[in-house]
Specification:
The chain is mostly beta strands and 262 residues long. 6% of the residues lie in helices and 62% in strands. The chain has 2 domains: 114 residues, Immunoglobulin-like (Sandwich); 139 residues, Beta Barrel (Porin). The chain has an 8-stranded antiparallel beta barrel. The protein has a 4-stranded antiparallel sheet with strand order 2-3-8-6, with no helix packed on it. It is rod-shaped.
Length: 262
């Protein structure tokens, strides 16, 4: 007949047999035909991954790996928790248990805490750039947030020499990271905007310019290296409903930005 025989002396006596440089605060308890083994991994951190092995010596025999286990054991035990537990279904492995000595070992497999801390210190996700775009050549700003997903806003304003009046561009773009290396990241961005543009007469001497608000579509690349950030963009304007008859616009505007991350 399968049975488990334990004494209080045995349960308290387990502690001296459990040896590990990283495992401590072992507590063992019986719950029916099950044995619960609680333990702690000293000074472990959330970025660490351990291989936890549970061995036992049954009835004074040689130590062996326990088979019918569940809980916190194996090759993917993550550190940083205050308590771990392994549950042993004893009678699936042996017919009778009079005495048992446990050994719980935790071997560090991976330590991601260093990489995480370096990433937190070095990765700067906000940026601000000075833009130059045209035609006509006008200055501007681009700023935003560039994580895995991000947002980018752009505003450019300047005087058009042909009309002697100010023109400006605005846009709001969604960014998506497509390259993520240790020292270099690249993001694709696209969005919409509105601009006050110069309209040229189709016929005439070129002096009869007018201005009109025209919507546009923004696409481009954002590139980050170290503390520096740069961008290349192209804006397409194609809503001819806002362009009076007899006038035309420059459908494509290009720009380049250079700035810093913080």
């Amino acid at each position: 007949m399968k049975k488990i025989v334990f004494s209080l002396l045995l349960l308290f006596g387990l502690l001296p047999f459990i040896q590990s440089q990283t495992v401590d605060s072992i507590k063992v308890e019986q719950a029916g035909n099950l044995i619960k083994v609680h333990y702690k991994i000293l000074n472990s951190k959330p970025g660490e991954v351990f291989r936890v092995t549970v061995l036992c010596s049954i009835n004074g025999g040689l130590q062996s790996v326990i088979k019918s286990l569940s809980g916190d054991f194996g090759d993917n035990v993550v550190g940083g928790r205050s308590d771990y537990m392994v549950l042993w279904d004893v009678l699936k492995d042996v017919d009778e248990v009079k005495s048992v000595d446990f050994s719980v070992r935790a071997e560090l497999l991976k330590d991601n805490t260093i990489n995480v801390s370096k990433k937190d210190r070095t990765e700067k996700k906000f940026y601000a750039q000075i833009l130059g775009e045209g035609p006509p050549g006008i200055p501007g700003l681009r700023f935003g947030y560039s994580g895995k997903w991000g947002l980018s806003a752009r505003y450019s304003v300047g005087k058009d020499k042909a009309t002697n009046r100010n023109v400006f561009h605005t846009s709001l773009d969604l960014t998506r990271r497509i390259v993520n290396q240790k020292t270099f990241q690249m993001h694709l961005f696209a969005g919409i905007g509105d601009s006050k543009l110069r309209l040229r007469p189709e016929n005439g001497d070129g002096s009869d310019y007018v201005q009109e608000f025209v919507p546009g579509v923004d696409v481009g690349l954002l590139m980050n290296a170290g503390i520096f950030s740069t961008s290349i963009q192209c804006t397409y304007f194609g809503d001819l409903k806002r362009v009076p008859i007899g006038y035309k616009i420059d459908h494509y505007y290009v720009g380049v930005g250079l700035g810093l991350r913080f």
